[in-house]
Specification:
Elements (H helix, E strand, L loop, with lengths): L43 E4 L3 E5 L4 E6 L5 E6 L2 E2 L9 E2 L7 E7 L2 E8 L2 E8 L4 E8 L7 E8 L16 E4 L3 E3 L5 E3 L12 E5 L4 E5 L17 E4 L2 E9 L11 E11 L33 E5 L2 E2 L7 E6 L4 E5 L7 E6 L2 E9 L2 E10 L4 E4 L2 E2 L11 E5 L32 E2 L12 E3 L6 E5 L3 H4 L3 E11 L3 E6 L3 E2 L24 E7 L12 E8 L11 E10 L1
């Protein structure tokens, strides 16, 4: 049997010495360096009875447990990095009993894990300090799609927003904590959208450990999705590749092969851009037999010559999505040109986003090996709510709460954080602080009843007007009901479809953008033009609990149309 065809669980591609198998037994919880002889000198693998042991020949030796596919050891230059609390690194919280096989194909070693309908893969390349991973989830028999790399304590100390090493006072559920100085910490506080990062990890002056994300073509939530990326506590740390997760999801999960994502060691710098999504190519994996794998030749590209009707103050993103896959790319600021490569064949909804607000959609079909070229896209003026003539407007429409009070803080802190400005705060149109003084979030039990003061001319007061309130997500069906001058109350609007889990308190305003419209009759306005009209915004819902877990919503913009 040749090495390229070898899948026998007990056969090794390159024999390692007995001492090379002692990869982590004596390493302490703080990552004590192992003797240099504990690292094999040549690329290859062996079977120690419990694990497959793979040596990349570049200072990285890792083990995959034969019974369940766990990553049970990760030794780099003699130091064990894997594991805390007696747990290994794995899909979800561990797959349980699985069939695990190994093969060598030239300069690549592939470990294949089969658990029911799920397939998971680890690949090593000769001379590289990387582990390449793929996950093929065929159905929902496994609840979510998450790989967690568990990292021993004491190797990378920090006190970042997603770390709770220095605090143990729980303020919400079991995953949001407060320090003694009133600042808050949680693994959810990544402060990043998917499109904003290529890798997540830690580094010292001499070593870096990262998970480089995949292109997320089989993930859910689009380019603006926010999720936990890492955590650190007194027990150890975790680095994540999350493709579908129960928190704040806006889409159904997609099935199929996702990857590669990469566990990468460096000499203290960031990972090579050659590993980044959109840059990484894996022709060496084309013939490995990975279930669901589609080579570059089986993919296509979408290119647009430009986008007109843009507001150049904002970045524009173009997204492709169907039930099987999702992709995105940035539109060039000068003319809106975009190119999205590596797309699986199929028909997609193409969406143009101003900031995070959809302003244009169309349908495109992608064929393998080809490029779908689109003529210049013209965004109709009416598609951008900012173009509507308004008597007054608070914030601009871009699909995010950015600009409102506390908006920037809320992607990496709890609303109770000592750094947050008071959540109350009425505003006066014309004051110059309408946006900065208006809270980004409104809760039924915290600051419902916010007031907006404004004057109307006689002609304006003599006519009916449309009031619009845009939101980006909601918790517990919270939605705005308005009262004008304590004489006219709007009907209670129906709740739009929003994620059912926490969002406002775990670092994400990202749900489904929705605009509420209220037709205010002329009889509601004051006829005395010297007096302020008063708009009261209440949050209504029959759900939620108390305080910051009462029903609430995140605001994008609000305006009164002329």
């Amino acid at each position: 049997m040749s090495a390229a065809d070898d899948r026998h669980p007990g056969h090794s591609g390159t024999r390692l010495g007995r001492r090379a198998l002692v990869l982590g037994a004596t390493a302490g919880a703080a990552g004590i360096a192992l003797p240099g002889t504990a690292r094999a000198a040549a690329f290859g693998y062996t079977d120690d009875g419990t694990n497959y042991v793979i040596d990349t020949g570049a200072g990285l030796v890792f083990k995959v447990r034969k019974s369940n596919g766990d990553l049970s050891s990760l030794v780099h230059r003699g130091t064990e990095y894997q594991g805390y609390g007696g747990m290994n690194s794995h899909i979800e919280s561990g797959l349980g009993s699985s069939t695990v096989t190994i093969q060598r194909s030239g300069s690549t070693i592939l470990v294949s894990v089969t658990h029911g309908t799920l397939r998971h893969y680890y690949a090593a390349r000769s001379g590289e300090n990387n582990v390449y991973l793929w996950t093929n989830k065929a159905d929902d028999s496994v609840s979510a799609t998450r790989f967690i790399l568990r990292v021993r304590a004491g190797l990378f100390l920090n006190d970042e927003p997603d770390s709770y090493t220095y605090t143990n006072r729980t303020i919400e559920a079991s995953d949001v904590f407060a320090k003694s100085d009133g600042q808050t910490r949680s693994k959810h506080y990544s402060n990043l959208r998917v499109m904003d990062y290529d890798h997540v990890g830690w580094r010292t002056a001499s070593v870096g450990l990262y998970v480089v994300r995949s292109n997320h073509e089989k993930a859910s939530g689009g380019p603006f999705y926010r999720s936990l990326l890492r955590h650190q506590s007194a027990d150890g740390g975790g680095l994540y590749e999350i493709l579908h997760y129960g928190q704040n999801q806006t889409e159904a999960q997609r099935f199929g092969l996702q990857g590669p994502y990469v566990i990468a060691f460096t000499d203290g710098g960031t990972p090579s851009p050659s590993l980044f999504p959109g840059t990484l190519t894996t022709p060496w994996a084309d013939s490995l037999g990975i279930s669901g794998y589609v080579a570059a030749s089986g993919r296509g590209r979408v290119a647009g010559v430009g986008i007109t009707g843009r507001n150049t103050a904002y970045a524009y993103t173009v997204g492709l999505a169907n039930s099987a896959a999702q992709y995105w790319g940035s539109a060039r600021s000068s003319d809106g040109h975009f190119s999205i490569a590596g797309v699986l064949p199929g028909t997609y909804t193409l969406t143009v986003f101003k900031g995070e607000l959809s302003v244009y959609t169309t349908s495109v079909t992608v064929k393998a090996g080809g490029t779908t070229t689109l003529n210049s896209i013209a965004i109709p003026s009416s598609n951008d709510p900012s173009n509507a003539n308004a008597i007054w407007r608070i914030n601009d429409w871009n699909g995010t709460p950015s600009g409102f009070k506390n908006a920037d803080l809320m992607t990496y802190a709890h609303p109770s954080d000592v750094r947050a400005a008071p959540w109350t705060g009425n505003v006066v149109i014309g004051s110059g602080t309408e946006t900065s003084g208006f809270p980004c979030y409104i809760w039924k039990d915290v600051n419902s009843g916010l007031l907006v003061y404004f004057r109307l001319t006689a002609a304006q007061a003599a006519a009916a007007h449309t009031l619009r309130i845009g939101v980006t997500t909601a918790y517990a069906n919270g939605r705005p009901q308005v009262v004008v001058n304590d004489t006219w109350t709007s009907p209670i609007p129906s709740p739009p479809t929003q994620p059912s889990t926490r969002s406002l308190t775990n670092g994400s305003y990202r749900g489904n953008n929705n605009t509420f419209t209220y037709n205010v009759p002329a009889s509601a306005w004051l006829t005395d033009t010297s007096r302020y009209n008063v708009l009261r915004i209440n949050v209504v819902s029959g759900s939620g609990t108390t305080s910051y877990l009462s029903a609430g919503t995140a605001i994008d913009a609000l305006d009164l149309l002329a």
